[in-house]
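WARN  no MSA supplied for this record, continuing single-sequence
INFO  ligand: arginine
INFO  echoing inputs
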Amino acid sequence: MEKMWSGRFSANASSLLDEFNASIMYDRELYIEDIEGSLAHAAMLAKQEIITTEELRDITNGLNQIIKEIESGKFEWNISDEDLHMAIEKRLTALIGDAGKKLHTGRSRNDQVAVDFRRWTLKKNLTIIKAIKKLMKEILVVANKHTDTLIPGMTHLQHAQPTNFGFHLGAYLAMFKRDIQRFESSHKRNNISPLGCAALAGTPHNLDRDMTAKLLGFDSVSINCLDTVSDRDFALEILFNISTMMMHISRLSEELVMWSSYEFGFVELSDEYSTGSSIMPQKKNPDVPELLRGKTGRVYGSLMGLLTVMKGLPLAYNKDTQEDKEGVFDAVKTTEISLEILKETIKTMEIKTHNMESACAVGHLAATDLADYLVEKCNIAFREAHFITGHAVARSEELKIDLSDIEFAELKKIDERINEDVMEFLVLRNSMNARTSAGGTATVRTIEQLKYFENYLKD
Ligand code: ARG
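INFO  complex generated
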């Protein structure tokens, strides 16, 4: 089949090349951005009197007809057309004749694909933000119910200090808020029009780049054409933003996997979002969080892939760049379904309050409180208080009890400066509620934090 660029060639491209070179199997995802870009470009060409109003009318009708053909599945996608840009332009010329051949005046596929892919990515920044907000709202519903539910706070996966479950979930709300901010900032930074940069150096045609930028919803036009057609930072940014967000999702998923084990028993995932085993009839497996953890690795792969594609490219466009799209499409699709299914999993899971609280009864979670007591009430230096508390912990281990259950007489034997009021410090709920410093776990502080996220999600 004859190519649009075949003027200087005397032999046809091999079918092997067609297959290797083509992006049409996947870049058709960009059809609406491509056609909107062409409609804006044509309107500008007419305003600048580079094409006539009749030609503009024909181009506009033709392109609208093509949208219908694509959306009804009638459009023919041929691998020999190489990419969607040429497939659409070819169809336009078939539909309207010579006017179709004028559309590409002052434009190259290099700025065209930059417009299409950039706009697609910008839109996805916004849909992902919406989806994160929905997830956060669902997390908030659960968190608000559990601001007084004790859960062992851990470091090194070892019992550390008592916290509450609402506070724990609040940590994820903070992460997801930062994720949103990253998508927002990428959106702002990259909302710049490449259209009119043409192949690499601009064009002698009298284009109005501001007009097309405005028509396409960009904030402004790009500064340097050579950079613009070479730049894929917007794609790298969405991949990085997705990767970071998926890392947060993966950490939450890891906790869900642990929490749903018998050993923890903090949550039970709903039947709707759990799976069984083909051989072990008793099994109920947390496939959803496991897959979320796994898909995070795949998304990182797309980020590393594109970083690697870009690292050695001389300016400006190189065909390597065509490898930018599949990873981004895949990562965005993965993100969309991940956010949705995590939201549903959280919404439908059962929180086993009793197990969370009884897990606090082991591991001497009140040890720091005893040390703090010695500092505050007995005027003992923290280092010494730490040492004395260590003895109390060792004694509790000997007695096979938790520090929070030790008798006053035992403590008095360890250090006679200790008084009866120490017992209040060893009550786990008091320990949690004592941490009233800004951002701390005390129920009052947790409620404040959750209110903060609630207000954030309002506007
Ligand atoms: N299909 C190409 C891509 O996705 C479009 C740009 C092609 N430009 C070129 N000069 N070959 O990157």
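The chain has a mean pLDDT of 96.
INFO  checksum written, moving to next record
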